[in-house]
Amino acid sequence: MTYKLIALDVDGTLLNDEHQLSEANKEAIAEVTRRGSRIVLCTGRNPKNAIPIMKEMGLTGYVLADNGAVTVAVEDSQVLHQYGMDARGLDPYIAYCRERGIHFDVNTAFDLYVDNVEHLAQEAMYMYEHLELVPATLPSWEEVAEPIVKFTAFAQREVIEQAIKDWGLWDPVFTVTRSGEFFIDIMHPQASKGNALKELAARLDIPREEVLAIGNYFNDISMLTYAGLGIAVDNSPVEVKAAADAVTLSNNENGVRAALLEYALN
């Protein structure tokens, strides 16, 4: 099978635990693109820190950012598609986070807002600096000019697990997704990596059977199950492996390279 569209998750999949892109993965990606496949990053990251990874690999095309809530062209940062949320519906989640001291941020396609930028916790400051993102203080909803595409809560594991349980009992206005060990993402009910990948494949006239996806976490399940071939890296939770068609090496063992060699370059 020739896979014309290959979707890669970034953190925990394409990058190792040091958040580095290995030369081995980079070379395998270069080879599949030479053979005519398109690479798309499908990530929970903001376009601002996803597009540079595409450029580091010498690629153009698209990134499906914010867990599929925003599709952006690499060359000119044009937003091709986005799932905007009803911002007022986020008020109960913001109140919940404030009452419990849970850090949160609110994302448009390119802007990032926090509750109070002057009082960021050290862990949050480190996270944003590491991701090369500069947050601003959240204004009133009327002052946010662009659609809200993602709300993220960040806390210790046990706090996040309790929030997942509590929010699961609320009216399902939004999609609530565990996007990392310490993160919950809340998005438009139709926003997911799988739907974004499906929409892009249709735009490019690529059938589902010719789409390959590689991921590692719960927010990747929708794209792994949409793709003609969904591959989980070995560091994935057991539920993600069960949802995939195949399992490859871990992100620290160049799992993307191993998967591309076995399924796209054989």
Walk me through what this model shows.
The chain is of the alpha/beta class and 266 residues long. It has two domains: 5-82 and 191-263, HAD superfamily/HAD-like (Rossmann fold, 3-Layer(aba) Sandwich), CATH 3.40.50; 87-187, Hypothetical Protein, Haloacid Dehalogenase-like Hydrolase, Chain: A, domain 2 (2-Layer Sandwich), CATH 3.30.1240. It has helices spanning 10-14, 23-34, 47-56, 91-100, 122-130, 157-167, 193-203, 221-226, 238-243, 255-263; strands at residues 5-8, 38-42, 62-65, 70-73, 79-82, 103-107, 112-114, 136-137, 150-154, 175-180, 183-187, 211-215, 229-233, 246-248. An eight-stranded mixed β-sheet has the order 5-4-3-2-1-12-13-14, with helices on both faces. A six-stranded mixed β-sheet has the order 8-7-6-9-11-10, covered by helices on one side. α8 (221-226) links the parallel β12 (211-215) and β13. α2 packs parallel to α10. The radius of gyration is 18 Å and the shape is globular. The termini are close together. The mean pLDDT is 95. It holds the Pfam family Hydrolase_3. GO terms for molecular function: magnesium ion binding; phosphatase activity. This is HAD family hydrolase.
